[in-house]
Amino acid sequence: xxxxxxxxxxxxxxxxxxxxxxxxxxxxxxxxxxxxxxxxxxxxxxxxxxxxxxxxxxxxxxxxxxxxxxxxxxxxxxxxxxxxxxxxxxxxxxxxxxxxxxxxxxxxxxxxxxxxxxxxxxxxxxxxxxxxxxxxxxxxxxxxxxxxxxxxxxxxxxxxxxxxxxxxxxxxxxxxxxxxxxxxxx
Length: 186
Ligand code: 5GP
What we know:
Layout: E1 7-11, H1 18-28, E2 33-34, E3 38-39, E4 54-55, H2 58-66, E5 70-76, E6 79-84, H3 85-93, E7 98-101, H4 104-113, E8 118-123, H5 127-137, H6 142-157, E9 164-167, H7 171-181
Parallel strand pairs: 1-7, 1-8, 2-7, 3-4, 8-9
Antiparallel strand pairs: 3-6, 5-6
Helix pairs in contact: 1-7, 5-6
The chain binds guanosine-5'-monophosphate (5GP).
């Protein structure tokens, strides 16, 4: 049996700055292994196969779901996202701390299979600030932004389900708080 306590899940609405926070965390703690998800979403400019995501079409994704290849998966804003099971299990078995950066439904599924995993929710200072950040990113269509904001409301209402909640107002402070919660030296 692997040590499920080594699995950390980070969830929070799109645009909250999870990606930046996670990158900074990994830069400071190279021992942590970040799971690369599979998605049916089209790559954004600059995104690379196998670095940001494994990009695949819906049929391939669904075949992998049927084969039990995902630890969790969910539909988010019209696209499918999933955590490949095998690499996560391998890393946990080797004793490496594992980090998943996934949305709410996926976090709930992981909670079922890794009850001792640590789940952190990242929230914005306000919904208005979140909208400003999503629009400012300039990577999504108006329709996609609308879906992401709608989903953000649902996710924010679920914050209390998590073991801990961090408000990402100031990135440095949020990072320190995350390190403290994960019991990492800063
Ligand atoms: P984006 O399209 O902005 O990269 O990601 C959209 C949402 O999908 C984000 O909230 C992100 O955390 C989530 N996500 C990314 N990978 C996975 C995954 O493997 N599983 C689940 N459930 N959500 C994911």
